[in-house]
## 1
Amino acid sequence: MVTSAIKNKLHHTCLAVQDSFTSIVEQFEAMSVESFALRAADYRDVGTRLLNALNGITGTLPHDMESDHIPIFNEITPSMVSRLASAGLKAYLCAKGSYNSHASILTRALNLVAIANIPLLISSLQDDDLLIVDGDEGKLVINPDEETLDYYAQKVQVEELLRQKLAELKASVSQTADGEPISLYANIGVPEELEGISNLGCDGIGLFRTEFLYISRQSLPSEDEQYDIYRQMAERMAPTPVTIRTFDLGGDKLAPFGLGAAEENPYLGNRGIRFSLAHHEVFRTQLRAILRASAFGKIKVMFPMIIDVEDFLEAKHVFNHCQEELYSEGLAFDSSIELGAMIEIPSAALGADALAKECDFLSLGTNDLAQYTLAVDRNNDNVSRYYIQHHPAVLSLIRQSVLSAAKYKIPISVCGEMASTPHYIPLLLGLGVQEFSISPNNYYMVKAIVKKCDSKLSQIISRFDLSCSVPEIENLFFKELKHYYQL
Ligand code: PEP
Ligand code: MG
């Protein structure tokens, strides 16, 4: 089947594998004898491995790995990261990769240490080398001497002390030095993080990346499975809100087999809300699960990759339909659940006025906003020097979105990695952002910086406009704003 797709349809190999296995999986799933239908999972698995191998993604974990072993990958996916964490490993190395990929975001969230994009170094390593992975400095120490070992032992202790010191901020109010309240939420990727997040003392969950529920397994979680997870989160975080983002599949979070064909250009393809609207069953299953869970706490829903207000209204229409369905089935849900859109595509930022008029809240996905504004693949380290989140074009779109939200008196948060990056906090506050959704590991650090900031920032930032160059902006917030973000 694969060879005939290559020969007859002139498909490239990956596309041929993807399409062939999708079709086999669908045939098995449609079989009425259950034991045959269950074989679909085996084919899905073989297809995934074949495709990974073709893409140079090496990867299942060897069974004899111990927690102080450091596996080495050519390329790593979010699902592999989640497997490393559940296997108790602490660090890994990767020949490819970039800071803002979903695998990296999940790596940080799960407290793993990693260094990526070091192909030459990796090729020089031997199996028995003793390694220290210094994630802070992006430094790999190979076969350290006694002195270096002592230095790192001390560094670990100092960091632990700093962590304890920052954690003393738990009970303090989140506000700037001149008393402006700033809401601080946490980002969550996998349910295992809930325990830690519920102890942070944060204002709730500002982004739950639900697609991680999907990509770390071979099949779609059922309505009941999703309901259990969402309900547990809502109950645990109540009375604070849990903002559930509907599946953001596509891009580097590829859908498992059986749901759509491979795409030449997945980041510009059927990603996020487009994927959900093209797979109504998947979308409705998720929305029903969310709605049922909303009876047990404060849940908000937001849609990823919205391009404009029509896109949002189409998603809202499906949501309303699910509400009606649940109502007629006599199932309980929160009828005043808030609906929001993510601003992560320039067209959404430019059309933020229209969106703000229809949405209950907005959330700025700056990781993608930078990627799409600057046309730079956030996963491709070859072009990482162009991935400038503080580029004036990106900042203008942030400012425009914040102004639209203020005009229609709805909240707007930043949930991209900028909100978790120390030197961007004063900048975002100066642009008028009052809500941040942060990687849990950086939560107290961001809180400490917020406490040092003040209203002078908005005057300083008002000097910025689109005519500023990147060096001018860097000069502004690396030099003038340094005392705000240096702890
Ligand atoms: C973003 O794009 O900034 C965002 C929060 O979404 P994700 O990183 O999951 O694409
Ligand atoms: Mg995004």
## 2
Amino acid sequence: MVKIDVKGCNSFVKESEYQTYVEKALAAYDVLDAENGAGNDFLGWKTLPVDIPESLICEFESIRDDWKNKGVNLVIVIGIGGSYLGARCAIEALGHQFVRKEGVPQVVFAGNNLSEEYLAELMDLAKTSNTAVIVISKSGTTTEPAVAFRIFKEYIEQTYGKSEASERIVAITDAKKGALKTLATQEGYKSFIVPDNVGGRYSVLTPVGLLPIVIAGFDVRAMLKGAADQREALSVRSAENPAVQYAAMRNLLHSEYGKAIEIFVVYNPKFTYLAEWWKQLYGESEGKDGKGIFPASVTNTADLHSMGQFIQEGSRVMFETVINVENANRSVVIGSDEQNLDQLNYLAGKSVNHCNAMAQLGTKIAHIDGGVPQMEVSIERINEENLGAIFYFFEFACGVSAYTLGINPFNQPGVEAYKKNMFALLRKPGYEAQTEEILKRI
Ligand code: PA5
């Protein structure tokens, strides 16, 4: 379960102002609860932790077992934005960073960029592996995953034959519409649905996130339980509700103190993709109508040696939200050295995690002294249950926070702008007029 500590902001704000923003956040909480706010046809994510049927998880496990029986050792998950970041976050957080679990395929991601080198090098890996593909696109029309899928579909068909290809490709898309839906139906792929009322960035607890996480060998039942417990905890309308506190403090810092940037801080490289997932969630949900807090991130302690200088002494436009993990899953204790040439004997007998915790605490004090307010969001340790809780917490808090700011958190009209220009430049049929226009500007 997630805990929040906003005390690191207390010296920057007045208590009475905080109470005012708690009231505003509670009013926003009521809108989310009553489901009568803007974008209320996209609230399916709220009940996902208790809606996902056991039979669906069993279907995921049967795909995992079928692929294991075929000797599949590489699964390429094709998707972009909300159609990949949640799965990638969970797999990187829960998995071993260097050693693959025996009997579990390597899970890699494609369709999240248009880099030729990326695709060519991934193809090199596919050619030396026993490969299967999961293609994910809610709209079924997004260019990046569609391009990657065309390339890997052709490879799978040529390598394993057309009929076997339908056993090695799974599609996750809309129930009715989109090119991927048509293609999957025609080719006879096993398909799963992204519910109509769940937007891409809120879809990690649908097949979009759950199937790749099962394939990578993790326990989605525990993840859903963690999310369900967090949902229960957030169902209490109170000033102590952590989502209300988070929404209140970030809106106060932004609206009254001009803090335009929120830095999501992690102290474990396994959480770098949690930060990526969070950035999409908050960036796409709040950044519209000329409003919003710019979501940035750092992975410490690495970034204390790069971004640390700016955070300590640069423009005072930011606050930090630190993900605090109370206990490490592994322990590495620093040894003693008779000669002590590296002068590290003062650390002998201490764990690396203790050093990390002291770096975190020292940084907190330094940043607060330097004018950077800090909130802390804590979990007990990294595991499936706590990851489910953290997903649900930030999704719910995002709804509360965006409504506090007066924004519809569930649309993303701005992402169409680059696509129109790109289609015109790629001469997609139907974009002829825009092509003429755009060519005059370059
Ligand atoms: O949050 C969103 O809706 C977007 O970021 C989408 O997830 C992203 O654009 C991918 O869209 P699709 O799943 O339709 O390919």
